[in-house]
Amino acid sequence: MIGIGAYKPEWFMHPSHTSPADALVVLQQLQAKQLIPMHYGTFDLSDEPIFYPKQEMLRLQEENNISNVLHLGIGGKHYF
What we know:
By secondary structure, the protein is of the alpha+beta class. It has helices spanning 10-13, 20-30, 52-64; strands at 2-3, 37-38, 71-72, 78-79.
């Protein structure tokens, strides 16, 4: 599980928060079997829109043909 929210502006938030793009780099570097993105869509703490991190993650996954990311919905519903 890697947090993908509250990362903009990156110059300020980077020490504490991971962007969707950085999370995918971590997934590859760790050679993990799966990534579950977390810490987004709850509190509006940064400059990106509240649901943008998930949208950006999905875009990057499609663009880079990455299929080992498990998206969990709010309340425990699974979205693949």
